[in-house]
Design a protein that fits this description.
The complex is a heterodimer of chains A (457) and B (209).
Chain A: H1 30-52, H2 55-69, H3 71-74, H4 113-122, H5 138-148, H6 154-157, H7 164-168, H8 176-188, H9 192-195, H10 234-243, H11 259-271, H12 282-298, H13 300-311, H14 313-316, E1 337-340, E2 344-347, H15 364-373, H16 389-392, H17 397-407, H18 425-437, E3 444-447
Antiparallel strand pairs in A: 1-2, 1-3
Helix pairs in contact in A: 1-4, 1-5, 2-5, 4-5, 8-11, 10-11, 12-13, 13-17
Chain B: H1 2-28, H2 38-49, H3 59-75, H4 78-81, E1 100-103, E2 107-110, H5 127-136, H6 153-156, H7 161-171, E3 198-200
Antiparallel strand pairs in B: 1-2, 1-3
Helix pairs in contact in B: 3-7, 5-7
The chains are: A mainly alpha (457), B mainly alpha (209).
Chain lengths: 457, 209
């Protein structure tokens, strides 16, 4: 047996600028700040060097890297509409819109090159944006950053409005005094309206926040700093207050509070942190899971959304195009056809709440029985594939409740799904003979397009 | 003369019966509609339970691994990460990988060996390597991004980081199975059905060295 690597050692990032060893964002050592500055300096120099060589060559290599590494999420045209984009939470950045969250520049302004390079290098915690420092050279990263800038004409027309003082000043660690002063700022700036009085949404008034594209964007849970997009050092958190997060409801507070107040607010926000599981004791982990289960019962829709968006229902219950991309706007409407030879053709069901063609007319129990036993409301049995219902038999009753509760909230899309198409008995028996006796490889095949009544893919 | 006729007829009837019996056997095997639903879900859950978590001495690791097991079962990781066969996933070689899928225009990929094997399984990967795949779909092999229709990383990317760590903790407990997985190829040989865009083989593509 291999020696187990203790999970507690694991950190969000390997280079130590986003989170410290405890993962709570406190007590970042001066040595890691120095390292960070050195890395930045090297990146700056690399940026200058690459600018001095042929800029067209750099952008050509930037495009080549982008087309290989970035398109699956951000799309070939940079619009944040890659093949996998429809299911990612949060959505990948739309570079054509040129609204960047993580900047050291004034609100509404473009990011600096260093801002883009920093994000590509270290990634974005709490999202699927990885840090590329392990796989790309600093020159490659700079080239990709340059290429990203070609998606919007703003970069050619405008200069980023840097905040020079911001880059230079590095705050000390939070103290009892700064935390207490920051609490007053939290109240003054009415942070609780979105983030709740406790930082995790309790008593929040604005609960249906949306990004500039009109997509739901829940307020950040301030008790989980390891998910802070821009990192969790006091400086990182302060920068979000100072610069705002373009494209999101998070504004800049530069006109509403002074420098000291914003620094204190950062100290207070970081003081709200709870322990992540990797820092907990065994008893704390167990209590945490119990509380989580209780929360699932209290707010089943929210918990059900988590299950549905992670378990992968939309993998099959959404039409896919010829190129393998999911059809945005048809999530959960079904219509993806699978051929499971020799058993027949199966089209994924419409899971939306549509009464006629979706689950709107089903009872909770009917949904649960299909999910856990593969028995349809009319009493017919499902094969254990392509719908992997045997895996869902292990769901706890409260998770099943939550899952169903969330499915109920999916807006209706009318898309009538045809019944399974069985082959004629001769081809069925011949297929079985090939599969079982001749041991022929009879692959499970997925088909492009929407096989439901809505068509149109 | 008479006995000969009887023998002939008996043989004939037996032959027809055998043929009909064989066809009926073909028709009903596997007896999907005759088996209890638990006969399908049971083996999958039993395979996950066969990973001995009681042996973990650190109670915290065990609590995380239990949560990870629950998520891994519900997510159906084993549907692709057990060696495939005509009779479904081979649960006896739990998470040894070997399911080959061709994606038109994207390449042909074989599911990874997730066991602790140090040469062919997750045993050769660091924690961060595994977490990066589950968070971003980026493989430790050169930072290649896995095709999301192959490894459905875009969904598991939505796990909280805490659940991802729990999943990792469970995966680390899976006993080693030395099954070698062929590397991905750029060519996608979708041959079975010309209208298909994805084809998952029913034959194990992994090899035992």
């Amino acid at each position: 047996m291999r020696a187990r690597e203790p999970v507690a050692v694991w950190r969000v990032n390997e280079i130590g600028n986003v989170l410290d060893r405890t993962g709570r964002g406190h007590g970042v050592t001066s040595s890691s700040s120095v390292t960070f500055r050195l890395v930045l300096a090297v990146l700056l120099l690399a940026g200058v060097a690459s600018a001095q060589t042929s800029s067209t060559a750099a952008s050509a290599s930037g495009k080549a890297i982008y087309d290989q590494r970035c398109v699956q999420c951000h799309g070939a045209d940079g619009r944040g509409n890659g093949a996998a984009a429809p299911v990612l939470l949060p959505r990948p950045r739309d570079f054509a819109a040129a609204q960047f969250k993580l900047r050291t520049t004034e609100t509404g302004s473009l990011p600096t090159d260093d801002d883009l390079i920093r994000t590509i290098t270290y990634g974005i915690p709490g999202t699927s944006m990885p840090g590329w420092q392990k796989f790309l050279s600093t020159a490659d990263i700079a080239a990709v950053a340059n290429y990203i800038k070609t998606f919007s004409p703003r970069f050619a027309a405008e200069r980023p409005q840097s905040i020079p003082a911001v880059a230079a000043s590095v705050p000390g660690a939070p103290t009892t005094q700064t935390v207490a002063a920051g609490k007053a700022v939290y109240e003054k700036l009415r942070c609780a309206a979105c983030h709740g009085t406790d930082g995790k949404g309790t008593g929040a008034i604005a609960t249906d926040l949306k990004d500039d594209a009109g997509r739901p964007l829940p307020a950040t849970n301030l008790t989980e700093p390891w998910t802070f997009r821009g990192g969790a050092t006091p400086q990182d958190v302060y920068l979000r207050f100072r610069t705002g997060m373009n494209g999101t409801p998070m504004p800049s507070f530069v006109d509403a509070a002074n420098e000291t107040e914003l620094r204190n607010l950062a100290a207070y926000v970081l003081s709200l942190a709870r322990k992540p599981v990797w820092d907990m004791t065994a008893d704390e982990v167990k209590a945490f899971y119990q509380a989580q289960a209780a929360e699932a019962v209290r707010d089943p829709v929210r918990h059900g959304r988590y299950i549905v968006t992670t378990i992968g229902c939309s993998f099959c219950h959404t039409p896919v195009r010829e190129d393998g991309s999911l059809v945005d706007g048809m999530l959960f409407a079904g219509g993806q056809k699978w051929t499971a030879a020799p058993f027949g053709d199966f089209v994924s069901a419409n899971l939306t709440s549509d009464k006629e063609t979706g689950l709107g007319g089903w009872t909770d129990d009917q949904i649960k029985v299909v999910l856990t036993k593969g028995i349809r409301p009319d009493g017919t049995r499902m094969l254990p594939f392509p719908m992997p219902w045997p895996s869902y038999a292990g769901l706890t009753p409260s998770d099943l409740n939550a899952l169903v509760a969330y499915l109920r909230t999916i807006p209706p899309i009318s898309n009538r799904i045809p019944a399974p198409a069985r082959p004629n008995i001769v081809s069925y028996l011949w297929g079985k003979f090939q599969l079982l006796i001749l041991k022929k490889d009879m692959p499970l095949v997925a088909h492009p397009g929407n096989s439901g009544s809505a068509g149109g893919v | 003369m008479n006995t000969r006729r009887v023998v002939k007829w008996t043989l004939g009837v037996l032959l027809v019966l055998a043929a009909v019996g064989f066809l009926a056997f073909l028709y009903l095997i596997p007896p999907f509609t005759l088996m209890a639903p638990e006969a399908f879900s049971g083996p999958e859950i039993a395979a996950a339970n066969a990973v001995k978590l009681d042996a973990i001495t650190d109670p915290k690791t065990r609590a995380l691994a239990e949560r990870g097991k629950y998520i891994v079962v519900a997510t159906g990781c084993v549907d692709c990460h057990a060696p495939p066969s005509a009779a479904g996933p081979d649960f006896a070689r739990y998470m040894a990988g070997g399911a080959k899928t061709a994606f038109k225009g994207h390449g042909t990929f074989v599911s990874a060996n997730l066991t602790a094997d140090r040469q062919y399984g997750l045993g050769r990967r660091t924690d961060e390597d595994v977490l990066r795949v589950l968070r971003s779909g980026v493989s430790a092999d050169g930072g290649r991004q896995l095709w999301y229709r192959d490894m459905p990383w875009a969904w598991v990317a939505n796990w909280t980081e805490e659940d991802r760590v729990a999943v990792l903790t469970y995966l680390r407990q899976i006993p080693a199975i030395a099954q070698k997985i062929p590397p991905p190829t750029a060519e996608a040989t979708v041959t079975y059905d010309p209208t298909g865009i994805e084809e998952t083989s029913t034959v194990n593509a992994g090899t035992t060295p």
